[in-house]
Amino acid sequence: MSCGEPHETDCSEVLDHLYEYLDKEMPPSDCEKFQEHFDECSPCLEKYGLEEAVKKLVKRCCGQDDVPTDLRAKVMGRIELIQSGEQVPQTPLLPEGAAPHPA
């Protein structure tokens, strides 16, 4: 995604690190660069707004549930594979028919 305009921080870099920005897991100097990018790039700002809304919804709906340790490890492993550019297996994270949390 890109608006087609040149930016000091490239759209792909912003989108690759969007969750680090949302989770406040980056240095303040990088946060400032990202905020400047959002101020001038409406497609990235729209993506940021959508991801922020999803994050808030998930927190509101599922924020009280404990995540099973093995599921968390599987999810973190897949995130690491994706970030490294490796092939991600198409196996489900939960056993077939299992609910992600008690209903």
In short:
The chain is mainly α and 103 residues long.
Summarize the structure in words.
The chain is mainly alpha-helical and 103 residues long. The chain has one domain. 59% of the residues lie in helices and 0% in strands. The protein contains five helices and no strands. The chain has helices at 11-16, 18-22, 28-40, 42-62, 69-84. The radius of gyration is 17 Å and the shape is globular. The model has no long low-confidence stretch (mean pLDDT 82).
Question: What's the structural blueprint in terms of helices and strands?
Answer:
Blueprint: H1 11-16, H2 18-22, H3 28-40, H4 42-62, H5 69-84
Helix pairs in contact: 3-4
Query: Strand share of the residues?
Result: under 5%
Structural class: mainly alpha
Distance between the termini: 37 Å
Low-confidence stretches: none
Radius of gyration, in angstroms, nearest whole number: 17 Å
The global form is globular
Q: Please state the average pLDDT score.
A: 82
How is the main sheet built? none
Number of H- or I-type helical stretches: 5
Query: Roughly how much helix do the residues carry, as a percent range?
Result: 55-70%
The number of distinct β-strands equals 0
H/E topology pattern:
HHHHH
- The tally of structural domains comes to 1
Pfam family, one: zf-HC2
Protein name: Mycothiol system anti-sigma-R factor
InterPro entries: Anit_sigma_mycothiol_RsrA, Znf_put
Key phrases:
globular; 5 helices; 103 residues; single chain
